[in-house]
Design goal:
Oligomer: single chain
Radius of gyration: 26 Å
Distance between the termini: 70 Å
Strand order of the largest sheet: 11-12-15-16-17-18-19-20
Structural class: alpha/beta
């Protein structure tokens, strides 16, 4: 039995539009335009899957004025981009996305301050174990979730999974914002991935691309200058222009609407409600440059969630505390300066203690709390630690020693730590030089002793961070500084009297008997060791090899 299904298209400045589809033998179905700017029509459809698109008189300047063009629905939740049509599913007389039934909505999830984030790209994370040319899919990523749980990860940051042009990309030029990338799998499989994450206590943060779009995004074809800046938003910064940029300043007085606000707000609500995501990483916030909009859309994301935590993160490079709460619109910022200052230190190129202290204690940079920064040594945009070391001629045991040192700094600094996939076992591939160049994870590295040992070290550090609340707090005190030896120490603690002390040697000298004065009183043991340490009146005497860290925890 057929049901009446409405199709609508918001195009307030366009004169005429029609619906075409497999249900009409691709003949025009007239649409009527309302005073609210929507074209509407209804079609009687039985349960099933149908192809459709809109035929509209365009207002975009790249076409002849008011010429008729065919476009995919900007709100389409499934598309065949190659054949240039959208798909609609009807079941029980209603539109549906799919029939997935969520299993783990009631599983408790970690709070923001407890997070250890793992950034991954679906296509490159898996799929190449047997066939090096095979692209990973959502189902392959599901098979790796126990690995991530065992590592200790409790949040995954997915590089974009919106439908993009072609079958392989980083995904940062989105063409269809409501549809999922079909080369990774189905909508049901993406939901299963997120659900399986939740079942393991792992949150899922989505990469949101709201600064720009692909040139063939349907909005570009319908009425380009209604949705986008007519010219480059920041012509003085052409290197950071990646496509047509949403115009968040445009206000339609007649309809009392800001078109770009409305569209992106709808995108955010859809992904939160339909895919149960737990956070958004907002790409290119410095280029988007509209804190009023960001504050509004961040509120949209949180008011549509169930009773669970949500995390809104800015990619603002260079990082700035002005984008984060309590004065800024978002919860956190990617802490690019952390990597910028830490990496030259573990590579032995410099020792600038004031810079180190600023990134280990981001309050010195104006950030209010630990959850305001997401620290990292590498991301999809930056080379991995092992590559940075190798490029400087540091290999083998020396490289793994310094990778461990970087891991300690990452996991014991104030802030939320994030790993780029493979960092935990010493992946050393160069980052992709183009966004269409696959760079699959080399999982066989885990068969090598040095790589397994680095993985175990990360695993133990993550356990220390998650179980010891001191490392989740805002508290840090630098109590020992010896710039000549490139040695310093800091203390982390929380309200439960749990304390962690970290001693760092960023020099190439090994100290058999380095004295750390003013060591905190109490009973202490060296991390991973069961025996207590003795503290004299002079302080703690410790052996300290070159480029290593020693961690002590209170009993």
């Amino acid at each position: 039995m057929a049901s009446s299904i409405e199709f609508n298209l918001f195009a307030p400045r366009n004169q005429q539009a029609a619906l075409i589809g497999s249900f009409s033998n691709w003949e025009d179905v007239p649409m009527e335009k309302g005073e609210d700017g929507y074209f509407r029509t209804k079609v009687d459809l039985a349960d099933g899957v149908y192809q459709y698109k809109f035929r509209i008189q365009t207002k975009s300047p790249q076409f002849e004025a008011d010429s008729w063009i065919d476009v995919i629905d900007p709100y389409a939740t499934d598309v065949d981009d190659e054949k240039k049509y959208a798909l609609v599913r009807i079941k029980g007389g209603d539109r549906i996305i799919d029939t997935y039934v969520w299993q783990h909505d009631d599983t408790p999830l970690p709070e923001n301050k407890e997070l250890v984030i793992y950034e991954l790209h679906i296509a490159d994370f898996t799929g190449g174990e047997v066939d090096s040319d095979r692209q990973g899919k959502y189902t392959d990523a599901i098979s790796k979730l126990d690995y991530l749980r065992d590592l200790g990860i409790n949040a995954i940051e997915l590089m974009p999974v919106n439908e993009y042009p072609g079958d392989y990309s980083w995904g940062y030029k989105v063409r269809h914002f409501f549809a999922t990338e079909s080369s990774y799998g189905t909508t049901e499989e993406l939901k299963q991935f997120i659900d399986e994450c939740h079942g393991r206590g792992i949150r899922v943060i989505m990469d949101g691309i709201y600064n720009h779009t692909d040139e063939e995004c349907p909005l570009m074809q319908i009425d380009r200058n209604y949705w986008y800046y007519e010219h480059m938003h920041y012509p003085e910064d052409p290197a950071n222009h990646w496509g047509p940029e949403f115009n968040y300043d445009n206000y339609d007085e007649k309809l009392d609407v800001k078109p770009a606000w409305k569209y992106v707000g709808d995108i955010v609500r859809f992904w939160v409600q339909e895919y149960h995501i737990d956070g958004i990483r907002f790409d290119a916030v410095r280029q988007l440059a509209n804190n009023e909009f960001l504050e509004w859309v961040a509120h949209q994301s949180k008011k549509n969630t169930a009773d669970k935590p949500f995390y809104n993160i800015a990619e603002n490079i260079p990082d700035t505390s002005t984008i984060t709460a309590p004065k800024g619109p978002l919860d956190a910022c990617w802490h690019e300066s952390f990597r910028y200052f830490i990496m030259p230190h573990i590579c032995g190129e410099t020792f600038e203690l004031d810079n180190l202290k600023q990134v280990l204690d981001p309050r010195l940079q104006g950030y209010a709390t630990a959850i305001n920064v997401v620290n990292y040594l590498a991301t999809h945009d930056r080379q991995r630690t092992m590559r940075e070391l190798g490029d400087r001629g540091i290999f083998d045991r020396a490289a793994f020693t310094r990778a461990k040192l970087g891991a300690v700094l990452l996991m014991t600094a104030v802030g939320v730590p994030m790993l780029w996939m493979g960092e935990e076992f010493g992946e050393h591939k160069r980052k992709s030089e183009t966004v269409t160049q696959p760079k699959k994870i080399a999982w066989p590295l885990l068969e090598r002793e040095e790589n397994k040992d680095l993985f175990a070290y990360y695993q133990q550090l993550i356990t220390l961070r998650k179980e010891g609340k001191a490392l989740q707090s805002d508290n840090i005190e630098f109590f020992h500084e010896n710039p000549e030896s490139r040695v310093f120490a800091y203390r982390r603690w929380d309200d439960s009297a749990h304390e962690v002390v970290v001693i760092i040697n960023l020099g190439d000298r090994t100290f058999d008997t380095h004295i750390v004065p003013n060591f905190p009183t109490g009973e202490w043991r060296e991390w991973l060791e069961s025996s207590e340490v003795k503290i004299s009146n002079e302080g703690l005497t410790v052996d300290l090899p070159a480029y290593t860290a020693k961690i002590f925890v209170s009993n």
